[in-house]
Amino acid sequence: MNQKKSLWKIITGSREVSLLLILIVMLIVVQILSRGTFLTPTNIGQIFRNNALTMLMALGMLCVMLTAGIDISITSTLAFTGMIIGMLQKRAGFTNTFALFLLAALIGIACGFLNGLIISKGHLAPIICTMGFMYIWRGLAYVVSNNQWASGADVAKFAEFGKDGSVGPYIILIIAYVVFFIVMKWTTFGRRIYAVGSNADAARVSGINVDRVLIQVYTIMGLLAGLAGALSVSIYASAQPNMQYGKEMDVIAACVIGGTSMNGGRGSVVGTFLGALFYAVLAKALPLVGLDSIWQNLIKGVVVLAVVLINVLTQRTMDRAALERREM
Amino acid sequence: MKKQVVSVVLTAAMAAGMLAGCGSSASSSTSSTSSASSSAASTSASSAASTSSSSSAASTSASSEAVASTSGAAGVGEASGKYALVPKSAGNPFNEREASGFQDALKALGCSDDQIIVSYPDNPTADSQITVIQSLISQGVSSIAVAANDASALDAALKQASDAGIKVCTLDSDVDADYRSVFCNQAGVKEIAQALMDAVYDISGGSGEYAILSATSQATNQNAWIDAMKQIAESDDKYADLKLDEIAYGDDEAQKSTDQTQALLTKYPDLKVICSPTTVGIAAAAKVLQDQKSSVKLTGLGLPSEMKEYIGDDDSHSCPYMFLWNPIDLGALAAYTSVALVNGTITGAVGDTFTAGDLNDGNPYTITENSDKASEIILGQPFKFDPSNIEEWAEVY
User: Contacts of residue A140 in chain B, CB cutoff 8 Å?
Assistant: First the structure.
């Protein structure tokens, strides 16, 4: 019946495609406004490197949001882990890069597990539970720092990994996105996450252990936040207790732009990638096109709202089309 | 039901664990204004704890050296009140050094721990400082020295303090002159701007393009220095060949400062020098330039311990030299000023003089008037950090 889709149908038929188109239009506009200086290999590399943390954590946030949850403790987990990693190097002279990343992952897992446990077993609203941990981990980051930063020479060897020109951050990003793409699309585990988010009761009735899925999802989020903590110290050669303060909103925004629903059950790895990329391009482009710094936040907000609106309208068209087909 | 009980027990156990953890580590970070004695105890405990790390061990000895001699302290009189310091934020080594200078100076004047109160705000905002100030008022302190996070937002709270008979002075970053007795200025605005402008002139070779990477667009200090730099550049033909491309704002965040530095490099291919008068900005910019092996050079205001890796004369280092002042001395000056104000040795009027221990080589300080007709005490000249002394100072702060 609809073997030959019109171009319009293709565009309005998928949130990913419409987002991709918006992204391409934005790239063209920025390329013109910046007089051709935007799309250079160095610049593209920097876009991914500077936003590696957001892009990495967006994957975890996707899983959390698919279960209709939210996690606002992630940047506190990041700061707590990053601070421990930094102080280990500064005070204990511990500099094995791999071991430090492993330790960061383990701390992150522990933080995330606690979130999952309390949310699933204690039936706490995710935003309340993670808000508590947002303050706890951030507070502990300050305690660990004891009014010191670890930076520059303290973390010099560790910073080699994330240095401009090193492939480290890119490799982590590529591995993470490939693994998540496969897991979310083709494994039982991935499908369970979608099932829990679409309808938790139905999932429970059909034999899915909802609590376990929730714990797993928040643990994954913690793991990625912990890794992001180590990555942050490596990329910026600096561990400060206030690092990435308030940036959890960027991560949530990246997911929402990418078409993830706040009500759960809807969202994809590809969409999240495009959403995070969109946000990253925007952050990089605004200073380049000659806008005064003080206007940048305002523009960022307007553009994000516009994109999400377009996204929602696309979704509505899709739903209507689906409904029409069913009625026929 | 069973599950709920289990979860409640788990949560309670965790909360207890958190509290225990905080207690043992002396909660040196967030606001500790509950009572005078407890906050003084926790700050002294934290300074004792910090001597375990090598770099801060050096700094504590240096700070005690700075205020070692108390013979000149007669200049401010006896310290018998309760003296409070409200730094800009917790978790920042500069503010911590400032606080340690304040504490050590008062101890040298014979203060006991419960006469010295250092109350950090929860967040680096004026709102949090207001909460802290109000709690200090109800504790009945004799003086408050505050490093303001906003030039005018603290007015009401500080007026309340003055009305309660508390002497108020500012350090590091000022408020409206009507609401404090005097401002302990780390270095005159003009002197800093002149030093930075000359550094740009020197490093660029006298001509070419330069850019400024600042903190936030509302930062009191940075805006004053940048305005003064612009005036200096306009008033002297010497700087006619220097062109200021842009003032970028990195908001004192590593990530945003990195983005902004990279944008400057892309936008202005002929850029020669970046001047960053803020510690987070200069460190982020230094890393970007050094990683990219850029020919653009950097100067500004930075912490020696943060910048050690980037300071050098050859092409492999991004920053030939930079400036700062000694936060330990600044804290000490605020301590002497507080005591002098409480004792009535000075009133904060222009022309008042007093000696502040060993500061200024034991010579007296005179209260002067700045360009806005407000009274201030200038600590000294900005200090230059270059390859010859950076190693030594990186150990101190």
Answer: 18, 21
Q: Is A110 in CB contact (< 8 Å) with chain B?
A: no
Q: Give residue A152's pLDDT.
A: 73
A244 contact partners, CB below 8 Å, separation of at least 6: A53, A75, A78, A79, A232, B255
Residue A316 has a pLDDT of: 82
> Cα–Cα distance between B199 and B193 in angstroms, integer?
10
Residue A41 in contact with partner chain B when CB distance is under 8 A: no
The whole domain housing B310 covers 189-324
Residue A71 and residue A60 in contact, taking contact as beta carbons nearer than 8 Å? yes
Q: What is the pLDDT of residues A44-80, one digit of tens each?
A: 888 888 889 999 999 999 999 999 999 999 999 999 9
pTM: 0.76
**CATH number, domain with residue A241:** 1.10.3470
Residues B159 and B240 in one domain: no
Domain-located, residue B150:
yes
Question: pLDDT by residue (tens digit) across B147-206?
Answer: 998 888 899 999 999 999 999 999 988 888 889 999 998 888 888 999 999 999 999 998
Does residue A18 sit within a domain?
Answer: no
Mark whether B245 and B198 lie in a shared domain: yes
Structure confidence by residue, pLDDT tens digits, A279-320: 888 888 887 776 766 677 788 888 888 888 887 887 788 788
Complex ipTM value: 0.71
> CB–CB of A145 and B310 under 8 A?
no
B335-392 residue pLDDT tens: 999 999 999 889 888 888 888 888 877 888 889 888 778 899 998 888 899 998 888 8
Q: How far is B336 from chain A (nearest CA, A)?
A: 24
Numbers of helices and strands, H then E, in chain A: 15, 2
Q: Are A246 and A96 in contact (CB under 8 A)?
A: no
DSSP state at residue B350: T
Residues B308 and B345 in one domain: no
Q: Which residue has the higher pLDDT, B39 or A95?
A: A95
Q: Which domain holds residue A134?
A: 37-290
CB pairs A-B closer than 8 Å: 138
The number of folded domains in chain B is 2
- Chain A residue numbers with beta carbons less than 8 Å from the beta carbon of B249 are 293-294
- Say whether B376 sits in a helix, a strand or coil: strand
Backbone angles phi, psi at A220, to 5 degrees: -60, -45
Please tell me whether residue A6 adopts helix, strand or coil conformation.
coil
- B59 has a chain A CB within 8 A of its CB: no
User: Which residues of chain A neighbour B309 with C-beta distances below 8 Å?
Assistant: 152-153, 156
Contact between B324 and B385 (Cβ < 8 Å): yes
Residue B4 lies in a domain: no
Contact residues on chain B for A83, CB-CB shorter than 8 A: none
Residues B309 and B291 grouped into a single domain: yes
CATH number at residue B173: 3.40.50.2300
| Tens digit of each residue's pLDDT (9 = 90 or more) over A192-244 | 999 998 888 899 998 899 999 999 999 999 999 999 999 999 988 888 888 88
Inter-chain contact B262–A151, Cβ cutoff 8 Å? no
Record the tokens describing residue A283, joined without a space. Answer: 């952050």
Phi, psi values for residue B124, rounded to 5°: -75, 50
Question: Quick check: B6 and A121 CB within 8 A?
Answer: yes
- Asked whether residue B306 falls in the same domain as residue B350, the answer is no
**B210 and B153, same structural domain?**
no
Q: Are residues B224 and B247 in the same domain?
A: yes
Q: Which pLDDT score, from 0 to 100, does residue B38 have?
A: 37
Do B245 and B342 fall within a single domain? no
Interchain proximity B50–A163, CB inside 8 Å: no
